[in-house]
Amino acid sequence: FVVLIAQRDIPAGDEITITYASEASSDSFALFMGFLGGHNPHDSVELFKSLRAAAVWYAQTFKSEAGEEVVDKSKAQAIADQLSERDGPGEAAPRLGWGGRVSDSLVDLFEVFNQQIMPGEDPSAMAAHAVKLRCQEMLIGFPTSPEKDMELLEALEGDA
Fold first, then answer.
1. What distance, in Å, lies between the first and last C-alpha atoms of the chain?
2. What is the Cα–Cα distance from 46 to 93, expressed in whole angstroms?
3. Are 45 and 95 in contact, with CB atoms under 8 Å apart?
4. Residue 132 belongs to what H/E stretch?
């Protein structure tokens, strides 16, 4: 149960409201407040467990036309470590947020690699391409389609 303590007298019949964490993700709402609301601009999804994992993924994903790796994994991880040190110990895993916001450190990492392997191309556009490709991989990896997910959700609503 929840106990509210008023800081002033409240006349009988007045409405009492509370404010939840204004910048919390849906994960936090579910875990700490016990419910989920609607669309939440503070929601995000983890793209990689760490910048090092993102560096390895990039090296394995982007190869030459002959299929050879063009980004050395150990050097890529060293760059990821430098960016992690720059961001400090509190930096979360690279994430994609509402409206396409991507962790700055992940964009920086991909831009460094893009400048190395395609110096004539726009590194920001190439970083966006890499993030899009990662999202596609993650979506393909889900066990059900979005359509099936909606069917399952609608069936649960019917049971309620």
1. 24
2. 6
3. yes
4. helix 123-141
- 75-115 pLDDT per residue, tens: 999 999 999 999 887 667 898 887 788 999 999 999 999 99
Residue 102, beta-bridge partner list: 96
Structure tokens at 87: 């961001």
Provide the 3-class DSSP secondary structure of residue 110: helix
pTM: 0.71
- Residue 6: burial class (beta carbons within 10 Å; 0-12, 13-18, 19+): exposed
Helix axes 51-61, 123-141, angle to 10 degrees: 90
3-state secondary structure 32-97: HHCCCCCCCCCCEEECCCCHHHHHHHHHHHCECCCCCECCCHHHHHHHHHHHHHHHCCCCCCCEEE
**What secondary structure letter does DSSP report for 102?**
B
Spatial contact of 101 and 45, defined as CB atoms under 8 Å apart = no
Residue 38 to residues 32, 58, 116, 136: CA-CA distances in angstroms?
Answer: 16, 34, 42, 24
> Using CA atoms, how far apart are residues 44 and 99, in angstroms rounded to an integer?
10
